[in-house]
Amino acid sequence: MEPTEGPTQDLIVMYLSRAVEHLEAIQSRLEAGETVPDDERLDALTGSVNGLSACLAILAQKVDELGA
Q1: Would you state the pLDDT for residue 43?
Q2: CA separation, residue 1 to residues 6, 8, 22 (Å)
Q3: Mean pLDDT score across all residues of the chain
Q4: What mean pLDDT is predicted for residues 16-32?
């Protein structure tokens, strides 16, 4: 593993964790009968998608390295 990979992966895990926490908070609010603005829902979903995209980029890089 290269020195720059660890921090990058740690940042992605942190980013995804925060995105999941945000989604769970929205879910809890909805279950409690609160109204959650669409822009807040969109922000939470966008954060999750961005984190997953970063994970897929790292996975693709690893596959390329293994294929080389």
Answers
A1: 92
A2: 8, 12, 31
A3: 84
A4: 92
3-state secondary structure of 37: coil
Q: How do the domains of the chain map onto residue ranges?
A: 5-67
The SS3 of residue 67 is helix
User: Quick check: 56 and 16 in contact, CB under 8 A?
Assistant: no
Contact 19, 51 (CB under 8 A): yes
18-47: average pLDDT = 93
Q: Two tokens at 62? A: 């690893």
Is it the case that residue 5 has pLDDT exceeding 60?
no
> Reduced to 3 states, what is the DSSP secondary structure of residue 23?
helix
End-to-end CA distance of the chain: give it in Å, rounded.
15
